[in-house]
Amino acid sequence: QVQLVESGGGLVQPGGSLRLSCAASGLLFSHYVMGWYRQAPGKQRELVATSTSSGSTNYADSVKGRFTITRDNAKNTVYLQMNSLKPEDSAVYYCNANPRSGLGYNYWGQGTQVTVSS
């Protein structure tokens, strides 16, 4: 069974940092573009960052310079380092595995809550 399990969410003050982790199992990790998405109450899910197995990354403009996505292919794990957090970063963050071919199934984790508040 394919599973994406996120961890690392929580409550943090503005300006603080969090590191999210997503552990993947049941799939060939190198065949997938890994990504982080987020969804705040009343808003659509939006892309935060993506990373290919070769290291190419893409970021939403709203997080550039503050967030960093990395992946450890040997551990089948993708990370999202979030620095200088703002209240508008508050959302449920979801891990995503997207087949490189674009033809396979698109997998999602269960989400982890990030709340930025003073």
The string of secondary-structure elements, in order, is: EEEEEEEEEEE
Q: What is the straight-line distance between the termini?
A: 40 Å
* Uncertain regions spanning at least 5 consecutive residues: none
Percent of residues in β-strands? over 45%
Q: Mind summarizing the main beta sheet?
A: 7 strands, mixed
What does this protein look like?
By secondary structure, the protein is an all-beta fold. The protein has no helices and eleven strands. The protein has strands at residues 3-7, 10-12, 18-25, 32-39, 46-51, 57-59, 67-72, 77-82, 91-99, 107-108, 112-116. Strands 2, 4, 5, 6, 9, 10 and 11 form a seven-stranded mixed sheet that branches. Strands 1-3-8-7 form a four-stranded antiparallel sheet, with no helix packed on it. A hairpin with a 5-residue loop joins β5 and β6 (57-59). It is globular. The N and C termini lie far apart (40 Å). 29% of the residues are buried.
Search tags:
single chain; 118 residues; mainly beta; seven-stranded mixed β-sheet; four-stranded antiparallel β-sheet; 11 strands
